[in-house]
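TASK: fixed-backbone design
INPUT:
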């Protein structure tokens, strides 16, 4: 039987070119991390200049998350239909335009619209890079590659946060978006030259010269060529969203949507509200950005560590334990701290466990769904889950507006991690056919 290109990548060792592809996915996710959190770095300045309430600010903080939900599902499906690489390039262009226009906004409504546009690109990017990292990894290191890709998110926030904190000491909040637009535009040539199309996508879509393109990529990666495309019936198919709710997959799909939705509410409560809360405690806006950076330092370490452990231990149980500690550390942050160093430490611990939980969920998505529906499943779960990302800051904003204390709000928002933990307990063991 004719060998499939995806099977060659599954079984053979990963060479330097494949590692570079995974590294590019990590870098693109890092870019997403900064672009999403740019509004958090800018939020104290926006609130001060425009005099908006916490409730209104919560809506602004959530707009790109709503866009991400739409983009993950719609653009994620486009990645299956037209290819991962062109979708990533389109998403980068959308993000450049959205970030630049945000720097020109003069009102809450206009800024919200531009952040919604930016979120569309970010959502499509996340679905595409997660699938790309899985498809260019071998079976042994697939969970690690996907986990490291997810861990790129806080890495981008760390680097971008450090730069943003410096910019905010010299310029106003608009400079954060200008920097984001420039940095995003700089990624376009890197993707063009370093990131090939997914061979699994080429095999499934069969564009013109598919065999030649696949063999060219395999040669570039240091693998042997295939003599012919497999019979159509033997190719991994991309059946779309309905397939995810058939008898075999409906339970897995539903529970992972619930798990991602619930925990992402907790995750974004921490990431979106830290700068404003720190300023409200009496610290400067530039210092607030530093606290958020520490949350992402903890998140990056937690994500990388979980990825390493996931290649040796059961990723589901690792994630369940992480979610339990996520609840504890978010509540600990809510007790309040009287010094900047204590706030930074509490933020780092909360970031460590909340982001490790997100990283674990990404790895579970890649492992629990079979390869022929992985891309669509990733887009759906991430997209639906982003509803929780959008709701988290809004709910917290209205809770604060009603006079609830920081500790009360933190406890209520941390319950999302508990609900996610319960969903993973109900998920059960991975199917024997998953990820093959």
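OUTPUT:
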């Amino acid at each position: 039987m004719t060998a499939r290109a995806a099977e060659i990548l599954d079984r053979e060792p990963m060479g330097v070119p494949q590692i570079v592809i995974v590294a590019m996915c990590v870098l693109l996710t890092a870019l997403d991390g900064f672009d999403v959190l740019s509004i958090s770095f800018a939020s104290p300045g926006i609130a001060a200049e425009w005099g908006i309430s916490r409730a209104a600010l919560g809506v602004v903080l959530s707009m790109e998350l709503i866009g991400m939900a739409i983009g993950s599902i719609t653009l994620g499906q486009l990645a299956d239909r037209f290819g991962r690489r062109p979708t990533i390039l389109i998403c980068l262009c959308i993000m450049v335009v959205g970030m630049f226009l945000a720097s020109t906004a003069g009102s809450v409504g206009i800024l919200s619209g531009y952040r919604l546009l930016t979120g569309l690109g970010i959502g499509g990017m996340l679905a595409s890079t997660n699938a790309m990292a899985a498809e260019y990894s071998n079976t042994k290191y697939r969970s690690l590659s996907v986990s490291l890709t997810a861990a790129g998110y806080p890495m981008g926030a760390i680097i971008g946060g450090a730069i943003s904190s410096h910019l905010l000491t010299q310029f106003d909040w608009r400079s954060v978006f200008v920097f984001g637009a420039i940095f995003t535009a700089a990624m376009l040539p890197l993707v063009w030259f370093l990131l090939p199309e997914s061979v699994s996508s080429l095999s499934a879509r069969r564009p013109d010269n598919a065999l030649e393109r696949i063999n060219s990529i395999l040669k570039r990666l240091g693998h042997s060529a295939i003599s012919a495309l497999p019979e159509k019936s033997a190719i991994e198919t991309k059946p779309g969203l309905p397939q995810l709710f058939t008898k075999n997959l409906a339970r897995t799909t539903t529970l992972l949507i619930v798990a991602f939705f619930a925990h992402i509410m907790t995750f974004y409560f921490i990431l979106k509200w830290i700068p404003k809360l720190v300023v409200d405690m009496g610290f400067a806006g530039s210092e607030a950005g530093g606290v958020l950076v520490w949350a992402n330092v903890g998140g990056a370490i937690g994500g990388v560590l979980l990825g390493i452990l996931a290649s040796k231990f059961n990723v589901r149980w690792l994630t369940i334990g992480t979610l339990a500690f996520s609840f504890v550390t978010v509540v600990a942050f809510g007790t309040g701290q009287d010094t900047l160093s204590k706030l930074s430490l509490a933020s780092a611990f909360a970031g460590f466990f909340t982001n490790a939980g997100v990283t674990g969920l990404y790895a579970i998505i890649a492992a629990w769904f079979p390869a022929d529906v992985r891309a669509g499943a990733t887009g759906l779960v991430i997209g639906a889950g982003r509803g929780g990302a959008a709701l988290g800051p809004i709910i917290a904003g209205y809770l604060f507006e009603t006079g609830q204390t920081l500790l009360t709000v933190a406890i209520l928002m941390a319950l999302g991690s508990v609900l996610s933990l319960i969903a993973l307990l109900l998920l059960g063991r991975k199917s024997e056919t998953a990820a093959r």
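COMMENT: DSSP finds 15 helices and no strands in the chain.
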